[in-house]
Write a structure and sequence with these properties.
By secondary structure, this protein is mainly beta. Helices cover 15% and strands 39% of the residues.
Length: 114
C-alpha cells in the first residue's frame, strides 16, 4: 500500500516563494504586439576580412546617429582579440583591426557595435 506523501516545511516554503515570484514573470496580454524601437546592433553596414593573422571590420554609418564599433577576432589555439573602438559620424566609414599573435590564426571575424 502506498503511503501518502507529506510536504516538508522546506517544500512548503519553496512552493510559496515560487508562487509569489511567478506573477512577476507574467506578460500582459497584447504586450508582445507593442511596437519596439529599432535595435542598435546591426545599424552599421559592415564587411569583414582576414589574411589569416589579422582580422578587419570595415564599417559605414548609414544612420543619422553617431555609432561605435570594433572588430572581434576568434583566434585558434590563442585567446580571442578585439580591435580599437571606432566612432562613426553619420555617413562616415572606418576600419578596426586586430591580430592573432600565436596559435593557428584567425578562425572567425565579427563586429561588435555599441
Amino acid at each position: 500500500m502506498n503511503k501518502p506523501r507529506r510536504l516538508t516545511g522546506l517544500a512548503i516554503k519553496l512552493a510559496a516563494v515560487a508562487a509569489a515570484t511567478l506573477p512577476a514573470f507574467a506578460v500582459a496580454p497584447g504586450a508582445a504586439a507593442a511596437p519596439q524601437a529599432p535595435a542598435v546592433a546591426g545599424a552599421l553596414n559592415c564587411t569583414t576580412d582576414t589574411d589569416g593573422v589579422w582580422g578587419h571590420a570595415h564599417c559605414t554609418n548609414n544612420t543619422t546617429d553617431v555609432k561605435s564599433f570594433r572588430v572581434v577576432v576568434v583566434c585558434g589555439g590563442w585567446p580571442d582579440v578585439v580591435g580599437d573602438w571606432k566612432t562613426l559620424n553619420p555617413g562616415a566609414a572606418d576600419t578596426s583591426s586586430a591580430r592573432c599573435i600565436l596559435g593557428t590564426g584567425v578562425g572567425r571575424v565579427g563586429v561588435e557595435e555599441a
